[in-house]
Amino acid sequence: MSLDKVVLVTGGNRGIGRAIAERFVSTGYTKVAVTARSGEGPAGTLTVPADVTDAASLDAAFTEIEATLGAVEIVVANAGITRDTLLLRMSEQDFDDVVATNLGGTFRVVKRAAKGLLKARWGRVILISSVVGLYGSAGQINYSSSKAALVGFARSLTRELGGRGITANVVAPGFIETDMTAELPEATQAEYKKNIPAGRFASADEVAGVVTWLASDDAAYISGAVIPVDGGLGMGH
C-alpha cells in the first residue's frame, strides 16, 4: 500500500472528519489535506479554507492542494450539515440548504477531483453517509434524503469510472460518541442504545478505520458498496 497518495477529507476540522484525517496521518499517509469553513485540521494535515456549496471556493482549495501536495487521489466527502425539524415545520430553505451541502457538496468535490483520478487511472472515492439514509429518522427528511442519495451517487460513479482503477463506496455511521451525544440525558442515551444490538455508540475512530481500509489496496475490488458502522442498528440496510 502506497502511503504517499494525496488524501482530501472535506469537513476535516471536527467530528468524524477530523478523526478520519487523524487516522490517515497515524496510518502513515504523508499528504493529507482537509477543507474547513473555519478552524484547523489535525496536526500533520494541510488545512485549506473551502465551502462545499461554492464551486469557485472548492476550485481554489483544490488548486492549493495540487500546488502543495499534488493531485488528489483519495477523496473523502464528509462535510455535512443538519437542519432537523418535522416535515410540516420544515422550510424550503431548511431542505435546500441540507441537500446543497450534503449532496451538492459531494457532487462538486468529486467532480473537481475526477479529472485527476482519471489521469492517474487510480482513485478512491469514499462518501460519508448515515444509518438514517436508509433507516429513516423522524425530523430528518432533508438529512435522510441527502444521505440516501449518496448511495445512488457512488453506484453511478462506479459504473462510470470503475474500469479506470477508481472505486466509489459509502460508509454509513450510526450513533457516534460526540460532544452532541454526550450532552444527551443519560435516560435518552440508554433508550437509543437499547435499539443498537451492540449496546453502545461507536467512537469516531471506528468509522475512520473503515475509511482508511477502503482507501487501501485491500479494498481494491470493492466498489458501489454501503458499509454500515452502526453496531447493527440498520442491519446493513
TrEMBL record:
Q: Which domain of life is it from?
A: Bacteria
Q: Which SMART domains match?
A: PKS_KR (SM00822)
MF (Gene Ontology): 3-oxoacyl-[acyl-carrier-protein] reductase (NADPH) activity
Domain named Ketoreductase is located at: 5-179
Which family, according to UniProt? Answer: Belongs to the short-chain dehydrogenases/reductases (SDR) family.
Q: Which gene encodes it?
A: fabG1_2
Protein's recorded name:
3-oxoacyl-ACP reductase FabG
Q: Which SUPFAM superfamilies match?
A: NAD(P)-binding Rossmann-fold domains (SSF51735)
